[in-house]
């Protein structure tokens, strides 16, 4: 029996669906979003652009200037004269310890207020949340006096303790709201399996609250990484100074090296950008989960 060959040319032609051209409304929306995105990125572009200029180019009329040639020596000066590397290590140490302590304490407090029933819980919750109303720099003088009395000035703890204390209220508020959306049946099943409170907290609750933890970690990282006023008040020794101190290394009485200052600020901005890009997915998951369950 011979194979019959299909000679109909129309049988094997796959009809691909035609792409719909976006309407006028979508085109306008895309243009508006592109403009907003450019405005959001413009400060970074401006920062990196000016970090490659000479100090004399800063007084021109143009908002953005093309470096001719690019002054990469500004970054060399930032590392050699601005003590970027030792200050960078201090900033990493202070920031990551503060962020880790804040996340740990926030989880414990959120679990205590949402899952445990005890007297005066509402009162203590409101007292902690009142911390969001107090600016961190309003406590410079009292903290300076206390740290001076207990000998904490010129130490890492002089920055870690206030950074952690002032980040806890808003962090606990975010984690508490997210934890309230978690069904209690999950914990009841863990209790039936014989899990204790610490195992429930770190084996069950912590993995579920990772989006909220990522959100508060990024926010707290940026707050601690860029803080300067409190560090300038409590720290005078070079061995404990953080990265923002590198900027004032190029400020003179009669002249300043603006290019090196912008180079330092560019280096300060890079870790914050990297942290946000790393945890973008977790932050989006937290926002979506909160919007759906809320």
Protein architecture, described:
The structure is a single chain. Mean pLDDT is 82; it is low at 290-294. The chain has helices at residues 24-50, 73-80, 84-115, 121-129, 140-150, 157-179, 184-192, 197-208, 210-226, 229-234, 245-248, 258-278, 280-293. The chain contains 13 helices and no strands. It is mainly alpha-helical. It is flat, with a radius of gyration of 27 Å. The protein folds into two domains: 24-71, no CATH class; 81-293, MetI-like fold (Orthogonal Bundle), CATH 1.10.3720. The termini are far apart.
CATH topology of the largest domain: MetI-like fold
Report the CATH C-level class of the largest domain.
Mainly Alpha
Number of helical elements: 13
**What count of structural domains?**
2
Largest sheet descriptor: none
The whole-angstrom Rg is 27 Å
Fourth-level CATH superfamily of the largest domain: MetI-like
């Amino acid at each position: 029996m011979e194979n019959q060959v299909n000679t109909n040319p129309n049988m094997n032609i796959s009809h691909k669906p035609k792409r719909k051209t976006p309407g006028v409304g979508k085109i306008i929306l895309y243009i508006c979003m592109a403009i907003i995105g450019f405005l959001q990125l413009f400060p970074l572009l401006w920062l990196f652009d000016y970090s490659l200029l000479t100090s004399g180019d800063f007084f021109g009329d143009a908002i953005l200037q093309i470096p001719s040639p690019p002054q990469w020596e500004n970054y060399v000066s930032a590392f050699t004269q601005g003590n970027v590397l030792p200050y960078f290590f201090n900033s990493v140490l202070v920031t990551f310890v503060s962020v880790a302590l804040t996340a740990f304490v926030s989880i414990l407090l959120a679990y205590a207020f949402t899952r445990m029933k005890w007297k005066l819980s509402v009162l203590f919750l409101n007292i902690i949340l009142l911390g969001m109303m107090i600016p961190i720099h309003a406590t410079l003088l009292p903290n300076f006096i206390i740290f001076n009395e207990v000998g904490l000035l010129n130490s890492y703890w002089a920055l870690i303790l206030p950074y952690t204390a002032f980040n806890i209220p808003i962090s606990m508020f975010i984690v508490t709201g997210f934890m309230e959306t978690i069904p209690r049946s999950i914990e009841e099943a863990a209790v039936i399996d014989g899990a204790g409170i610490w195992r429930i907290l770190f084996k069950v609750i912590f993995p579920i609250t990772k989006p909220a933890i990522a959100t508060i970690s990024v926010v707290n990282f940026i707050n601690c990484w860029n803080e300067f006023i409190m560090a300038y008040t409590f720290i005078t020794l070079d061995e404990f100074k953080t990265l923002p101190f590198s900027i004032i290394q190029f400020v003179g009485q009669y002249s300043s090296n603006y290019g090196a200052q912008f180079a330092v600020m560019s280096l300060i901005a890079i870790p914050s950008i990297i942290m946000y890009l790393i945890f973008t997915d977790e932050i989006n998951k937290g926002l979506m989960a909160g919007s759906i369950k809320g």
